[in-house]
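Students often ask why inverse folding is considered easier than folding. One informal answer: many sequences map to the same fold, so there is more than one right answer. In these notes we will look at a single instance of the problem. The structure comes first.
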């Protein structure tokens, strides 16, 4: 195995998760920025490129050429099937990614870099938005929007949970529900990291909306997504 192969194997589940949550094509820079908001500060843009290129070769991802913005990446049509099969194999990094705690992947990346002598400092993501440390916000000027986002999120969570008894959802749904609950809890703070709220709350609700697209609960989730998007000042899905 080479450094590139090891990095690609361990980052592939993360990249799949990011692309699935966003539900739209992303650039390498988009994915790299997401890695830093998810605690993967040692991941470089080159690491992301190794991973996406490997995923394209294995037909997990699709590369869309764009000479102005840089190539875009999205999930292949059979990606869900490939990942579902991989997640049933306990030796697979996909199984470990969904089963292990949040420190598993950062620790694995650190150990891989150490074993190959890659001791570079954490990179600063290439982003057109303010860094996370500068994106601490207060919603004091938008109390109405804050209350609406809270109420709509509570309604969405209640509706999703009512679909089944606790513990009977598949593990991924349970995990995303917990993330949405964590994002909802952040709205009770006087100051919040908007990037963290977006990752946990907005992306989590968006994932649930896709997961339950054919269920009547989707309308309630969509209402929550719109309310949260309006609060955070991000584009409201069409």
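Output (designed amino acids):
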């Amino acid at each position: 195995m080479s450094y590139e192969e090891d990095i690609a194997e361990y980052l592939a589940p993360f990249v799949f998760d990011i692309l699935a949550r966003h539900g739209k094509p992303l650039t390498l820079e988009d994915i790299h920025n997401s890695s830093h908001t998810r605690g993967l500060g040692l991941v470089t843009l080159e690491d992301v490129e190794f991973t996406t290129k490997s995923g394209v070769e294995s037909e997990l991802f699709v590369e869309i050429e764009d000479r102005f913005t840089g190539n875009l990446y999205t999930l292949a049509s059979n990606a869900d099937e490939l990942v579902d099969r991989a997640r049933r194999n306990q030796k697979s990094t996909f199984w470990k990614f969904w089963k292990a705690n949040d420190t598993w992947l950062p620790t694995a990346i650190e150990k891989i870099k150490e074993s190959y002598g890659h001791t570079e400092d954490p990179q600063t993501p290439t982003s057109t938005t303010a860094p996370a440390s500068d994106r601490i916000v207060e919603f004091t000027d938008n109390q109405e929007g804050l209350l609406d986002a809270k109420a709509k999120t509570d309604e969405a969570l209640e509706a999703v949970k009512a679909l089944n008894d606790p513990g009977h959802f598949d593990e991924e749904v349970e995990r995303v529900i917990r993330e949405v609950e964590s994002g909802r809890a952040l709205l009770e703070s006087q100051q919040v990291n908007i990037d963290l709220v977006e990752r946990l709350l907005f992306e989590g609700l968006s994932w649930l909306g896709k997961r339950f697209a054919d269920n009547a609960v989707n309308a309630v989730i969509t209402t929550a997504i719109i309310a949260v998007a309006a609060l955070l000042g991000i584009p409201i899905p069409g």
